[in-house]
Design goal:
By secondary structure, this protein is mainly α. The protein is built from 22 helices and 4 strands. Strand 3 (320-321) and strand 4 form a beta hairpin. Helix 6 (110-121) runs antiparallel to helix 7 (126-174). Residues 262-281, 400-437, 659-680 are annotated as: Disordered.
Length: 680
């Protein structure tokens, strides 16, 4: 039965399955709709500005700034300034299409390099790995750096548009064209734009800190493996393998978490739930992700302790190591202590408090168990108390791991790294609690995909609401009689243009974060992990799965995560270029034509009307595509759950009602609404 579970788990967690799972879990956070829906509105607003610029002209240069204007070229002509906004907008969208097309082509090549890297890693010849693996990783790094440059240059284009609009509005304020409430409203909008820029810069700094810390965590992974193996008594192979799977899963969660952090809203603050009562949290999003990445290890050690509980008694015979005259749980206690020490260096927050509490409880239980041995049994009351403590520890560890999955967007069903899977299949040993663990992972998968569906639903609803608001403003402005289009109408249009352009720029900032992540993961692989692999001795007596194989698995994990992110970006870029070709580029060309036309000729009004209609059509087409994509997402997530139920749940023996109640309770508390909303 246990080998069947392992086999089914392997088939459900192949590289292809995990790539698709990542796309499903990340869909609400990296959805391409947010890249596309503001685009037709932005173009429509630029078209309206070209139309408005054909009216009365005036100077906005009454009170210029001391150092002169940084972005406006023609302050003597308001009409010329509007044309400058439109021209820079045209260049931004033109470059966005061209660069996204190149990003699509670049990311298409990553899977092939990944396949070659895996083939090389599976070779037993270390010299061959040393000679050829760096080239494959370097190819992925070059792609990431090229895409990073493309995304950064596009982001800069949209930033230029925003800067021109912002300076134009400031010039209008300084030229005293506003009074009373109007002046206050414009100043408020300018402050919002500056705050958005500041938040964006802070997000960039957080991202920089995150990718630097990955290298440190990689070093720790090697150190933790070596220390644990040194302290592992001979004959304790299964405990050692659980330790290793906890370390590798934790590192994968860290990368997933940092990737998801880069794809979330840049305006988001540190979540409310990180704050204890009466105390502000010192942790930011990344600090929390780092803490939550320890959940896999904590859960592994809790599960290993629970394996010594048989029904309503403790299996003292298996728990006590007669040869070394110690309780086997001493190893778990040492690992809980190691995690606790590493957590003490993290800033204070609720996640840290919860993780420390789990480690302390684990150490306390291990110390209590160590007092007894087969010869010195504890009484029935104490046994009952210990069993209850172990049960509660396991439930809390499962709840914490579920929170970790919610925060880091890591899949519930995780594959074993290739070298570890190979060694485990040779030994034929699997966890004694395989059925129970499989049920927990199935329940986690169900909760995670249900929660993802819920957040995606809200995401699409918010997008439709924002779209409706902006469309209504556009309709109101279009309904103005040409003679009624005054200065205030134009300013209102500029403010909305600044807002919408800000949203488009935000999406490109996400792309920059994605590629920063891929580039840095590969750089760590090339500099740190590969170096460790080459310098590590294969002579590890404790396990057949030695430090050399562990390094191989870490290399695989990093290359796979980089490939996973590239696959996610390829999905976004493919859709963007397709939609841009069908619905945006003709409108951009029309805008260019409009800017070059003589405003006095009757053809000008005809071209304005044509641009308006085509932008409305593009907007409707994109919204239809959004709903189609949402339906496909729901079908795929349902199909994934059905496949898990059909292949894995179907082979499991019936579970006791109390066991299922405990599992469901732990998972539900981990995916609770207040936890997820802070990140939505």
């Amino acid at each position: 039965m246990d080998s069947q579970i392992a086999k089914k788990n392997k088939s459900l967690t192949t590289a292809e399955e995990m790539r698709n799972q990542t796309k499903l879990v990340m869909q609400p956070y990296a959805n391409w709709e947010q890249y596309l829906t503001p685009a037709p509105l932005s173009i429509a607003i630029l078209g309206e500005l070209v139309f408005i610029s054909s009216k009365t002209d005036f100077s906005i240069n009454k009170n210029p700034p001391k150092g002169g204007y940084k972005f406006i070229r023609y302050p003597e002509s308001f009409r010329a300034c509007l044309m400058q906004v439109c021209n820079s907008g045209w260049w931004a969208f033109n470059e966005a299409h061209k660069n996204m097309d190149q990003i699509k082509l670049h990311t298409m090549a990553v899977p092939d390099y990944m396949k070659t890297a895996v083939k090389i890693l599976f070779q037993g010849n270390n010299e061959l790995i040393e000679a050829h693996l760096p080239d494959q990783l370097e190819n992925i790094r070059v792609i990431a750096d090229d895409c990073l440059e493309l995304a950064t240059s596009t982001e800069k284009r949209f930033e230029d548009v925003i800067n021109i609009i912002q300076e134009l509005l400031e010039a209008c304020v300084n030229a005293e064209h506003f009074y009373g409430e109007e002046l206050s409203a414009i100043k408020k909008k300018l402050e919002e734009a500056k705050l958005r820029k500041q938040t964006s810069e802070e997000a960039a700094k957080r991202s920089e800190k995150a990718v630097k810390t990955i290298e440190g965590e990689m070093t720790k992974a090697h150190e933790n493996y070596n220390k644990a193996m040194d302290s592992l008594p001979s004959g304790w192979e299964m405990i050692g393998m659980d330790l290793v799977s906890g370390i590798t899963e934790g590192f994968t969660s860290l990368i997933n978490g940092v990737t998801s952090m880069g794809s979330e809203k840049l305006t988001q603050k540190s979540p409310k739930r990180t704050q204890s009562k009466g105390q502000e949290s010192d942790a930011n999003c990344f600090d929390e992700i780092n803490i939550y990445s320890k959940s896999a290890e904590i859960l592994r050690y809790s599960e290993k302790i629970q394996e010594f509980v048989k029904e309503n008694t403790i299996n003292w015979k298996d728990l006590y190591d007669q040869k070394h005259k110690i309780a086997k749980t001493k190893f778990q206690a040492d690992q809980f202590n190691r995690i606790r020490e590493s957590l003490n260096k993290s800033p204070d927050c609720k996640a840290k408090e919860e993780a420390l509490n789990l480690c302390s409880k684990g150490i306390e239980i291990c110390e209590e168990l160590a007092k007894y041995s087969p010869e010195k049994k504890c009484d029935e009351a104490k046994t009952t108390e210990l069993i209850e403590m172990i049960r509660k520890l396991n439930e809390s560890a499962r709840s914490f791991d579920s929170k970790s999955k919610a925060v880091t967007k890591s899949p519930a069903l995780t594959p074993k790294p290739p070298m570890m899977e190979k060694e485990e299949s040779k030994s034929g040993k699997v966890s004694e609690k395989a059925s129970e663990n499989a049920r927990f992972r199935i329940e986690q998968s169900r909760a995670q995909l249900d929660k993802t569906r819920e957040i995606y639903e809200k995401s699409v609803e918010n997008m439709e609401k924002n779209q409706k608001e902006l469309t209504e403003i556009l309709i109101t402005m279009r309904n103005c009689d040409v003679k009624q289009i005054d200065f205030n109408t134009t300013i209102e249009m500029l403010v909305k243009g600044m807002d919408v352009m800000g949203r488009v720029k935000e999406q490109w900032e996400k792309m920059v974060r994605f590629f920063q992540m891929v580039s840095n993961i590969v750089k760590v692989s090339l500099t740190k992990t590969l170096k460790d692999f080459l310098s590590t001795s294969e002579k590890t007596q404790k396990l057949s799965y030695n430090a050399k194989l562990f390094s191989k698995d870490l290399l695989y994990n990093q290359a796979f995560q980089a490939s996973n992110i590239a696959s996610l970006v390829n999905m976004i870029s493919t859709t963007y270029t397709e939609v841009s070709s069908k619905h945006l580029m003709d409108r951009i060309s029309s805008l260019g034509k409009l800017m070059a036309m003589d405003k006095e000729k009757p053809e000008f009004l005809s071209e304005v009307e044509q641009l308006r209609n085509s932008c409305d059509g593009a907007q409707q087409a994109i919204l239809a595509l959004v709903l189609k994509n949402k339906k496909e997402f729901e079908e795929k997530s349902s199909a994934r759950l059905e496949k898990i139920d059909k292949e894995l749940l179907a082979i499991l023996p019936a579970a006791a009602p109390e066991e299922m109640k405990s599992i469901k309770s732990s998972v539900k508390s981990g995916f609770a609404d207040d936890e997820e909303e802070a990140y939505a």
